[in-house]
Amino acid sequence: MSSPSNVPSQARSIATRARLLASAVDALVADGYAGASTTSIAKRAQVSQGALFKHFPSKHALLGEALQQLFTELVEEFRQKLVRDARPDRLGAAVGILWEIFCSPKLQGAFELYLAARTDAELAALVTPVLAAHRQNLLAEARALFPAAADHNPDFDPMILSIMNMMQGAALAASVIPTHENGERELALIERIARQELMRGAVAANAAARAKSEASNRVPAKGSV
After folding, report:
1. Rounded distance between C-alpha atoms, residue 139 and residue 130, angstroms
2. Dihedral of the CA atoms 10, 12, 18, 23 (nearest 10)?
3. What is the model's pTM?
4. Is residue 223 left, alpha or beta, with left meaning phi > 0 and alpha meaning psi from -120 to 50?
């Protein structure tokens, strides 16, 4: 059990770590991967580089954990926005909210790490498991949101991941060549694809329910000849 004298020190340590993680994301957004040095991150967090390295052994370790925290925050942001969204069309609401998040500066900063990891083995070793866990979290969110389609469409998971990849590619392209009209058309296409696949799951679910009902009706009543 911590002594009372250690509590303030622990609280300061937790606060410093949180500032460093937030500052790492801010540095990626503002300066890109190349410009997000430990010096600039420490300056943003208002701590010394020595304090930074007490919490994180390297820039890679700091950015890897910052990416993990960012993904956690963005998933929670999606949940909260979807709860507040009053549109009866849940698919339309989900796609619209996802597009907002993909185009957000913070996720654009995360894209910087994706690209840097391609040629940086140490960074890739930290980023790859974070991305893999994030993909599983996204699939879990989608399955909870559309359970019938998830249960009855064998291509549900690949469909969700493909939609995420399409959104990511479109958002990355829009960050370099902003084209509002093309972005809207791409988003409409993505939504149509998602709707078709969800409908496929709904049709399969209805067919399974009918088959089960018909099978139960064919079972002879107990004691009948």
Report:
1. 14
2. -150
3. 0.80
4. left
Three-class DSSP category at 72: helix
Q: Distance from CA of residue 182 to its chain's centroid?
A: 23
- Which domains does the chain carry? 60-218 (1.10.357.10)
Question: 195: closest CA among 102, 89, 123?
Answer: 89
**CA-based torsion, 178, 67, 79, 137: positive or negative:** positive
Residue 81 is encoded by which pair of tokens? 């926005």
CA distance 71 to 77: 10
In 85-179, alpha helices (H) = 90-102, 105-117, 121-145, 147-152, 156-176
CA angle at residue 12 from 6 to 18, to 5 degrees?
A: 135
Band of pLDDT at residue 197, cut at 50, 70 and 90: confident
Residue with tokens 């907002």: 100
Expressed in angstroms, the distance from the first to the final Cα of the chain is 73
Is the CA virtual torsion 166, 170, 175, 176 positive or negative?
A: positive
